[in-house]
Every structure is written in structure tokens, then in C-alpha cells.
Amino acid sequence: MSAHGVGGGRTRGVVVAIDGPAGAGKTTVSRRVADALGYTRVDTGALYRAIALRAKEEGVAWSDGAALATLAARLQLSFAGTPVHLHIDGRDREADIRAPDISQGASIVSSHPEVRAALLDLQRSLGKDGGVVLEGRDIGTVVFPDAEVKIFLTASDDERARRRQAELASRGVDSDLATVRSEMMERDRRDSSRPVAPLAAASDSVRVDTTGLSMDEVVQKLVDIVRQRAAR
User: Strand locations in 166-225, DSSP E?
Assistant: First the structure.
């Protein structure tokens, strides 16, 4: 398995770890924060989505940790393009990994210790040079425990469900709000209770509740935090 970063020509900066549950705004916020800072953005959740997608296509059960780890080891995963998309074996699969069933599959796949171990070095390699914003669920606790900036984004359950439904609608996917909320809560439960690298806020992270805040307000808040930490 190999990976390639994105961007180029930027000055060295800090490692920014953004964690939090689904629907908290991590994807949009991390993208805009990275743009504002001139940093590279890495969506680590996309890597687990990639494993779930390819497993589904190859008939590998999401419950088979050993087989999934073997699959992960032979995939070529990279982030490239403008906007940055995930590529699997050189092919842009960004749209495919965002399907609702793959979201659930990624949560199941990521619960396997073997899969997390297979992707750990890859994730660390993507951020080793600094000047990077990584989003996920265990970036500040496991992947980069020494990150200079750790953010834990959250929002109310209802707010997160509405955002998730709006995201699906933007991709032409019809969904029922109650179903979206139920699936989101189940994913939260699974991600928070897995024995390895559970979803959790690092003890030294800054908790940011995005409920009721505009995206501009959230982005500015995070950019200010990063600049303050980077200046130390």
C-alpha cells in the first residue's frame, strides 16, 4: 500500500488534528481551514471508506478483519487533484466512497484492529512533514498524539442529523431524517465503543461545539486556534 500527499511549495507548519463524530462538520471545516492556512488536508476517514468500497466490490465481508487487512495492504491509496479526491489504484473514487452504505461499512471496517494497524503508518506518513490538517476520529489520540493542535468538533444530535441529510441531498440522495439520525447514532455507538482507537476527545484537545454556528464562524475559530498555537 502506498500513499502520496497533495499540494506543494508550502512552508512547513504544524500538524492539526480534527476529530469528532459524523455530522459535526469535519469535512467542510477541515477543507476550509487547510485552504485558509495553505496547508494540505487529509481525510483519514476516506481511507476506511476505500477499504469498505473495495471489499464490497470484491466480495470481502466487512466482518472479516484479516481479509480486510490483506486487501488494505495491496491497495494504492492517494489524494490528488483540485479539489482533492481520494484515488484507489490510480482511479478517482471520491463519489463512490461517499455512498450511505459505504459510510456504514467504513464504520464497521474501522473497528478491526488489523485494518487500523494496516492504515496507521500510511496516515502518519501523510502528515509527517507538518503543514497538514488531518480529520478523523482518532487523529489526536492515536495517529498523531503529539500534534501541535488538536480540535474535537461536535454538535447536537439533531443538528448533525440535519447536516448529514443535507449532505446526502446535495448528492441527489433522498433520505428520511429519522433514519439518518438513527444510523448516525448507531455509527457513533460503534465508533465510540470499539476496543481499538475509539472515537474520543484527546485530553489536551480544544472542544468546539458547532451547533448554531455558521461555517464561517467555525472556520475562523479554528484558524485562530491554529495560528495561536503555531506562534508559540
Answer: 206-209
- Rounded to an integer, what distance in angstroms lies between the CA atom of residue 232 and that of residue 222? 16
**Cα gap 55→47, rounded to integer Å:** 12
Q: Are 194 and 183 in contact (CB under 8 A)?
A: no
According to DSSP, the β-strands at 77-80 and 85-88 are antiparallel
Structure-derived torsion over alpha carbons of residues 136, 141, 143, 148, reported in degrees to the nearest 10: 90
Helix, strand, or coil here: 75? coil
pLDDT in tens, 6-16: 443 334 589 99
Grid coordinates representing 61 are 465481508
What is the phi-psi region of residue 7: left when phi exceeds 0, alpha when psi lies from -120 to 50, beta otherwise? Answer: left
The alpha carbons of the chain give a radius of gyration, in whole angstroms, of 17
Q: What is the mean pLDDT of residues 205-215?
A: 94
Edge to edge, what strands does the sheet with 85-88 contain? 77-80, 85-88, 91-92
Q: Is 150 helix (H, G, I), strand (E, B) or coil?
A: strand
Residue 178's CB: how many other CB atoms inside 10 A?
10
pLDDT digits (tens, 9 = 90+) for 155-179: 999 999 999 899 889 989 899 999 9
